Amino acid sequence: MSDQQENSLEEMCELIVDCPHSTPKWTDSGHLVIRNQNIRNGRLDLAKKSYTNHKDYLVRVRRAVPQSGDLIFTREAPMGEICQVPEGLDCCIGQRQVLLRPAINVSSDYLLYAMQSPYVRDQILWNEGTGSTVSNVRIPVLKKLKIPRRGNNETQIALILKQLDDKIDLNRRMNETLEEMARALFRDWFVDFGPTRRQIAGETDPAAIMGHAFLVDKALPLAPQFPANLGKNGLPEGWASRELRTALTLNYGKSLPKKSRIEGGYKVYGSGGVTGTHKESLAKGPSTIVGRKGTVGSLYWSRDDFFAIDTVFYVTSDYPMVFCHRLLETLGLETMNTDAAVPGLNRDNAYRQEFAFGGEDLIHAYAEFCDALTEKSDANNLENQTLAALRDLLLPKLMSGEIRLKDMEGME
User: Which domain range does residue 46 map to?
Assistant: First the structure.
């Protein structure tokens, strides 16, 4: 990059504001606080939100209120992640973060991608004075980061990369919608007994009775399995309550200390999710992993074979696994901590949880509905892998000028 024009980050920003070095008081509602866990791979992910009160919010915005186009950079834990503040978001920054406000003549989108380029990332990860890796970024070092400049092409470069990321995000949101559809249908059929309640209300069309999950020809034999009345037990007439042990088996994971792991092709699951990889698997996918110690009742889905460590259970069943996964979501396992010192889920207590059983045909029909959603979701994931690989290939080459915009003319 020695022959490439550069500016320091400080020269490209109107403001570089460090966060208050204090923890805000966490509340159930109020002002949104952006935390490091919300920032990954250049994106702001607000699936899990955190809030603070108005008093602490005022402390955190004393020097600057985040506005559309600002960038939030993580100084440590993790170090070097960055995202852009979207339009209309009322928020404040959390701990170990820095607010960057691009100068009026600097494209916020371009700076977002430049900060993710290998050239800038290498500066972030290595301390030039010592030649060693660092665990946090000090403000003076941050200000001196050298950012590549591409002149009048910067807006177009950002547009190309943003179009790829926008498509990735669209596919991701579509998959979230598909998952919510599967979750909603499960609750409608097996928890709220919607088909029975719709018949009680006078509905006679089979497709409507079944929540429009299937066309009439498929819904016709399924609708009668939801009687038009509720029994004294609150279930559709003829349905019964069964214990969870009749539907699935919660298998214990096995100890696998980090020092014993050999990196390989199988994900390793603990109660907090994926903790690495190993050369061997313990269980076959698809399966659901259930937090046993630590994060009690946490649920993770694995389509592929995996290794489950001893802080989790993994599920096997003669029923379709997608049914088992949705069933476990409804049982409130996360509230079943049996050890005050070390949170734990007792398997026998879990097995005693009851669910409504209306016949295996309905279970397999539900799985068939989910299979169609999974096929679309898998296609979206595959496309996202391709798009992400293309973005990661183009990002450094566009920033360095190795690929010029005219070289991309005609590319779709």
Answer: 6-149
Tell me what the mean pLDDT of segment 226-250 comes to. 95
Q: For 308, list phi and psi in degrees, rounded to 5.
A: -105, 120
Three-class HEC string of the chain: CCCCCEEEHHHHEEEEEECCCCCCCEECCCEEEECHHHEECCEECCCCCEEECHHHHHHHCCCCCCCCCCEEEECCCCCCCEEECCCCCCEEECCCEEEEEECCCCCHHHHHHHCCCHHHHHHHHEECCCCEECCCCCHHHHHCCEEECCHHHHHHHHHHHHHHHHHHHHHHHHHHHHHHHHHHHHHHHHHCCHHHHHHHCCCCCHHHHCCCCCCHHHHHHHHHHCCCCECCCCCECCCEEEEHHHCCEEEECCCCCHHHCCCCCEEEEECCEEEEEECCCCECCCEEEEECECCCCCEEEECCCEEECCCEEEEECCCCHHHHHHHHHCCCHHHCECCCCCCEECHHHHHCCEEEECCHHHHHHHHHHHHHHHHHHHHHHHHHHHHHHHHHHHHHHHHHCCCCHHHHCCCC
Specify whether 185 is located in the same domain as 325: yes
Q: Do 269 and 310 fall within a single domain?
A: yes
Averaged over 172-184, what is the pLDDT?
96
Single pTM value for the model: 0.83
pLDDT at 403: 87
Residue 200 sits in a domain whose CATH number is 3.90.220.20
Number of structural domains (the chain) is 2
Residue 391, in any domain of the structure: no
Q: What is the mean pLDDT of residues 313-328?
A: 97
**209 and 349 fall within a common domain:** yes
| Segment 335-360, tens digit of pLDDT | 998 766 677 999 999 999 999 999 99
Residue 157 lies in a domain: no
Q: Which of 173-182, 244-253, 340-349, 374-383 is the least confident region?
A: 340-349
Is residue 312 situated within a structural domain?
Answer: yes
Q: Given a cut of 60, is residue 410 above it in pLDDT? A: no
Question: In the predicted model, is pLDDT for residue 110 greater than 90?
Answer: yes
105, 134, 149 - which closes a domain: 149
Residue 216 lies in a domain: yes
Q: What is the pLDDT of residue 407?
A: 63
